[in-house]
Write a structure and sequence with these properties.
The protein is α/β, with parallel strands linked by helices and 333 residues long. It has one domain: Cytosolic phospholipase A2 catalytic domain (3-Layer(aba) Sandwich), CATH 3.40.1090. It is built from 13 helices and eight strands. It comes from Marinobacter salsuginis.
């Protein structure tokens, strides 16, 4: 036990349709906790599909509805391929049109902005206008003066603009590519956010709960050609970036936090990897695998003694310095 102030961070990885695994885990945890899962965390971080989930949780959309969103609308998100996209494949255009994703997001979020969210969030993206990593955040620090005006739909499209799979996303702040290029597993960003912005001069305890997407380790077969152009790499290059990041972040968080770090993820069996390897594969077999493994992973976590602090923690009221939910002391007269 400790008397230190405690901050809990929820970190949700990206993974395309494999986000159904994450959503299933969240739905099971939320049902067991009997309260919105966002109420148990002081900061929610999410990248790509995990970013969409993070934004939704911060808007207090029930996790079981997010699970249904993947199940019911996965084919709309990943099924928009005109004849010329099918013809060109990965060569000259993105594999999927982003119109379906935008439609699904707009139906769920409408015109709400980051400033309308009830809980702190951090969503990584890559700003292709500057070539730099960027983080869209709620206004939980006095210096965060711009992001709260952003529409949630635009932020979700930016963090999910996976190279090769979807077109780049343009909004009022620039042109953006998938946050997975800078941090597909955002737990380290969450740890840094607490120590640098939420409690920069305090001796605090930080716990991080990371939920993965059954990430498939990107590897090369023994007899494969080593001379690989874009035609051979295609989506595999993005998969490799994700795989390498996931393992590195997991290692560093375990070293930094010890038992204050808890990861929920699974390795697919050889048979199941055929169902879920592709980020955009929407099928009955992929859906069943992701739901079944996600449900079991949540049950396993709930029975783990090291998970107990996460289900018992109650996050304090977040302080926002700008926007419609502004409640910082200097803003209250």
């Amino acid at each position: 036990m400790t008397d230190k102030p405690t901050y809990h961070v929820l970190a949700l990885s990206g993974g395309g349709y494999r986000g159904l695994y994450t959503a299933t885990v969240l739905a099971e945890l939320e049902r067991s906790m009997g309260a919105p899962i966002a109420s148990r965390f002081d900061l929610i971080c999410g990248t790509s599909a995990g970013g969409m989930l993070a934004l939704a949780l911060a808007a207090e959309i029930p996790a079981h509805e997010l699970k249904s969103l993947f199940e019911e609308h996965g084919d709309r998100i990943f099924g928009r391929r005109s004849w010329w996209r099918r013809l060109l494949g990965f060569w000259l255009t993105a594999k999927h049109d982003s119109a379906g994703l935008r439609e699904v997001l707009t139906e769920r979020f409408g015109d709400i902005t980051i400033g309308d969210l009830s809980h702190r969030v951090l969503v990584p993206v890559v700003n292709y206008s500057t070539g730099l990593g960027q983080f869209f955040k709620t206004p939980h620090h006095p210096s965060f003066e711009l992001d709260y005006r952003m529409k949630v739909v635009d932020v979700a499209l930016a963090t999910a603009a996976a190279p090769v799979y979807f077109p780049l996303a343009r909004n009022d702040r620039g042109v953006f590519a998938d946050g997975g290029l800078v941090g597909n597993a955002p737990g380290l960003f969450g740890l840094h956010e607490v120590r640098s912005f939420l409690a920069p001069e305090e001796d605090v305890q930080v716990r991080v709960l990371s939920v993965g997407t059954m990430t498939i380790g990107a590897t090369i077969r023994g007899g494969a050609s080593l001379d690989r152009g874009f035609g051979k790499w295609r989506g595999g290059l993005f998969d490799l970036v994700i795989s390498a990041q996931e393992s590195s972040v997991d290692y560093m968080l375990r070293q930094s936090l010890g038992d204050d770090y808890f990861q929920i993820d699974d390795k697919a069996t050889p048979d199941q990897s055929k169902d879920v390897k592709a980020l955009d594969r929407v099928s009955i077999s992929a859906t069943n695998t992701l739901k079944d493994r996600g449900s079991h992973a949540a049950q396993r976590a709930l029975g783990d003694e090291h998970f107990k602090p996460f289900r018992e923690h109650e996050a304090g009221l977040p302080i926002f310095f700008h926007g419609p939910n502004k409640n910082a002391p200097e803003a209250i007269c």
